[in-house]
């Protein structure tokens, strides 16, 4: 299993960013995918999830109304669209899949600053 995140960077408050996570090594269309983040000095926290069958989504309160998780099964990629970002969104963002055991990508840094 391999998960490779991309799309992070420096963005101003109120701006937007789209993160991508390219997956391989498992049956992508059958897997529930998740995004987590970890800010400096803080524990890793759940951000969003999208299921395999119905594509239903769930979000942490911090991202509701601002973040959108989506997936493209043909491209084996999960996305996190981040709108109206805030300085407190600064963190390393990870995608995760539970496929027997939990697998994590290497993360992509998002920095929200003016």
Measured by DSSP, the beta-strand proportion falls in: over 45%
Alpha-carbon distance between the two ends: 37 Å
Helix percentage: under 10%
Name the quaternary structure.
Answer: single chain
Mean pLDDT: 97
Write down how many β-strands occur, each being a DSSP E stretch of 2 or more residues. 11
Structural class: mainly beta
- How many whole angstroms does the radius of gyration measure? 13 Å
Major pleated sheet: 7 strands, mixed
Structure annotation, total helices: 0
Shape: globular
* Secondary-structure element order, N to C: EEEEEEEEEEE
Sequence stretches where pLDDT stays below 50 over 5 or more residues: none
Task: Give me the secondary-structure topology.
Blueprint: E1 2-6, E2 9-11, E3 17-24, E4 33-38, E5 45-50, E6 57-59, E7 67-72, E8 77-82, E9 91-99, E10 101-104, E11 108-112
Give a quick rundown of the structure.
The protein has no helices and eleven strands.
Structural features, described:
The chain is mostly beta strands. It has no helices and eleven strands. The strands form two sheets. Strands 2, 4, 5, 6, 9, 10 and 11 form a seven-stranded mixed beta sheet that branches. Strand 5 (45-50) and strand 6 (57-59) form a beta hairpin.
């Amino acid at each position: 299993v391999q998960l490779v995140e991309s799309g992070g960077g420096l963005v101003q408050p109120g701006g937007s960013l789209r993160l991508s996570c390219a997956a391989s090594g498992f049956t992508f269309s059958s897997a529930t995918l998740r995004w987590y983040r970890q800010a400096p000095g803080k524990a890793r926290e759940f951000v969003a999830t999208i299921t395999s069958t119905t594509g239903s989504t769930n979000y942490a309160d911090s991202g509701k109304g601002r973040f959108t998780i989506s997936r493209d099964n043909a491209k084996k990629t999960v996305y996190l669209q981040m709108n109206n970002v805030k300085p407190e969104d600064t963190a390393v963002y990870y995608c995760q899949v539970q496929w027997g055991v939990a697998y994590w990508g290497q993360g992509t840094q998002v920095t929200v600053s003016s």
